[in-house]
Predict the 3D structure of the following.
Amino acid sequence: MTKKTALTILSLLLCLQTFAQHTDDAGRLKRLTVLEDSLAHLGKKMVNDENDMERKNANYKFIPTLVQALRIDNSFAYPFDSVKAISIIKSPDNRFRILTWHVMNLDGSYRFYGTVQINTPTGELKMYPLEDYSPLMKSPEDTITDNRKWYGAQYYKIIPVHTVKPYYVLVGWKGNTVKSTKKVLDVLAFNNDKPEFGMPVFDGNGKNRKRVVFEYARQVSMLLRYIPEQNLIVFDHLTAPDDKMKNHPETFGPDLSYDGYKLKNGRWSFVETLDMRNIPDNTDAATGTDYVDPKKQAARDRASVPSGH
């Protein structure tokens, strides 16, 4: 075999390999697109259907369909943009992403679902399903858990913290009951590559917290936002309408003042009565300024559907 012939054969093999790779990529993309369509349809039913069993049945179908999609090689890079029922956020360092969603129960409470998907070098699936343990967690602000005893929430922001032991603050919405809503600041760290939730890094008011839970009246909104320029998490100060209701957080609402947590040496220190004139007015949705109550969103969605559909 001459040198010229050998080079020709090598070139042909490289072309065939490239063609096979492109064909394989096209096949994966097609499968992901088909599954995404199914997930989008099921997601709408999970949020919008007025029948409790229909919402739950849609979720039961949604979960294995999502797992099937995630099992496709290199699914980590696939955005699932049309699946509006779930929140998908990547860590800024591209190490992982979290997919979270909820199903509303008949009594107006919520159950949360999710998974942490790891970005693997080979593109193979590595994930940790999240099991909502909220109803059985007696002291969520004092508890460290794993993915099997997760304090369920639907996350809309990841804040990386670079310390000796790096961790991520998760900002999430946590629908509660027909009377109140919750939001949460949780912490995700990895021990031996396994996720762990909760870390004693929130200091203030004479107490150390492993996560911070806010509860307020269902009919009001609460600002909970990260200001990266100042390493500051800012939020509405919640108060009772009068002294008689100070032990009833389901009546709390914003009083037009703001508090926060300031990052100092890898920990978050409580800051009272912030001057919002010094806070950048960036209300872009990507900052996680607020989270739309899905019950209200569902009502708007139904109102926007033409009659007969």
User: Anything to note?
Assistant: DSSP finds three helices and 16 strands in the chain.
